[in-house]
């Protein structure tokens, strides 16, 4: 199964998931053609395997009708020439080792504290971010320097619990800012300015951050129009297509509308807190690591820590985890298309789905 077969695969689904797919997804396939000069043929064959591979290219477009997230898939783009060769695992590991004894290795003296002090967990301790995104912006510094050290469900749960306690302390100081957001930018390729393993937390005022609020509103509108839960239907479609697995109360799937390469989504059950999806996050992270992903971005979406006037009943705790590419590549993976139009994707969600299946089977 590949993304090129998506239209046919949806048409072959059982009635309920097919109806959900038709409500949520707009899928189309087109063919891009070109005529290369004879002088280019040797280079094309070396770079892409054959001239035929580029003269007729199948491109699949998938749009989420509800959220208007979308992606254009063409696996040929993974073979584009890059400015520098990929870095080996050994080189990345050496870079990580060379940054030991950074400020995060001495949290008490190398980082500031928030005005409510530091929050300690079994595996990490918080600091205040020097250059803040928002009024309260903290850092959860892992005890282990290496951000690629194995992280099981218990370790994820400990980090989630420590970060949540930080957020609760921030909201106690500033009750008008109950909207809590957690992120993990792993390695420089993913926007991490310090190699040492760490997550970041913020709280904000007025309403949740725009992308979280947009998703909430889309889910509410979907329920009003179809009398169905958007997140349940989203899972139903991905599960029926073989893109998802369940683990310890979490639903994990390779999304058909990724923001960038190999994006995985972890959905909790309605009303469950984020600690309930720790096992799913660990599985998703393990699946990405199994296919060579080292630099990643992770975000936790969840309802506010104090009730507001909005309807959050249909909004489960959820995590999004995405590959950010080889740390040794100078070519940025995000350009004008991703910023202003739609994501352009070289990886196949069905390959990521297979990695999920293989990881849970171990």
Entry summary:
By secondary structure, the chain is an alpha+beta fold. It has helices at 6-11, 15-24, 41-48, 52-55, 89-98, 107-110, 153-173, 210-226, 230-240, 278-290, 336-340, 349-361; strands at residues 25-33, 56-64, 70-73, 124-128, 136-142, 179-186, 198-204, 244-247, 250-254, 264-267, 296-301, 318-323, 343-345.
Describe this structure in words.
The mean pLDDT is 94. Helix 7 packs across helix 10 and helix 10 crosses helix 12. The longest helix has 21 residues, at 153-173. The chain is 34% helix and 21% strand. The strands form two sheets. It has a nine-stranded antiparallel beta sheet with strand order 4-5-7-6-11-12-10-9-8, sandwiched between helices. Strands 1-2-3-13 form a four-stranded mixed beta sheet. The protein has one domain (88-362): HIT-like (HIT family, subunit A). With 362 residues, it is of the alpha+beta class.
């Amino acid at each position: 199964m590949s993304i090129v077969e998506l239209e046919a695969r949806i048409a072959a689904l059982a009635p309920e998931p097919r109806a959900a797919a038709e409500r949520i997804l707009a899928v189309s396939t087109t063919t891009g053609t070109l005529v290369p000069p004879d002088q280019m043929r040797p280079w094309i064959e070396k770079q892409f395997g054959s001239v035929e591979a580029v003269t007729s290219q199948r491109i699949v477009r998938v749009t989420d009708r509800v959220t208007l997230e979308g992606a254009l898939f063409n696996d040929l783009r993974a073979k584009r020439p890059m400015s520098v060769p990929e870095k080996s695992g050994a080189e990345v590991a050496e870079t990580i080792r060379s940054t030991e004894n950074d400020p995060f290795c001495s949290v008490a003296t190398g980082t500031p504290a928030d005005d409510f002090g530091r929050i300690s967990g079994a595996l990490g301790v918080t600091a205040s971010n020097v250059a803040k995104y928002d009024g309260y912006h903290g850092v959860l510094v892992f005890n282990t320097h290496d951000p690629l050290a194995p992280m099981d469900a218990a370790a994820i749960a400990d980090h989630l619990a420590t970060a949540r306690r930080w957020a609760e302390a921030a909201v106690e100081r500033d009750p008008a800012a109950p909207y809590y957001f957690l992120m993990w930018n792993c390695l420089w390729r993913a926007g991490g300015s310090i190699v040492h393993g760490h997550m970041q937390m913020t709280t904000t005022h007025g309403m949740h951050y725009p992308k979280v609020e947009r998703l909430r509103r889309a889910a509410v509108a979907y329920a009003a129009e179809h009398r169905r839960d958007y997140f349940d239907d989203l899972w139903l479609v991905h599960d029926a297509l073989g893109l998802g697995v369940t683990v310890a109360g979490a639903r994990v799937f390779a999304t058909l509308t990724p923001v960038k390469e190999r994006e995985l989504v972890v959905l909790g059950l309605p009303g469950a807190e984020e600690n309930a999806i720790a096992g799913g996050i660990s599985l998703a992270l393990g699946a990405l690591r199994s296919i060579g992903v080292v630099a990643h971005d992770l975000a936790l979406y969840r309802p506010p820590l104090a009730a507001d006037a909005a309807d959050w009943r249909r909004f489960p705790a959820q995590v999004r985890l995405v590959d950010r590419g080889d740390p040794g590549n100078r070519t940025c993976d995000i350009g004008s298309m991703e910023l202003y139009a739609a994501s352009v994707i070289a990886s196949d969600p069905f390959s990521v789905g297979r990695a999920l299946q293989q990881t849970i089977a171990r």
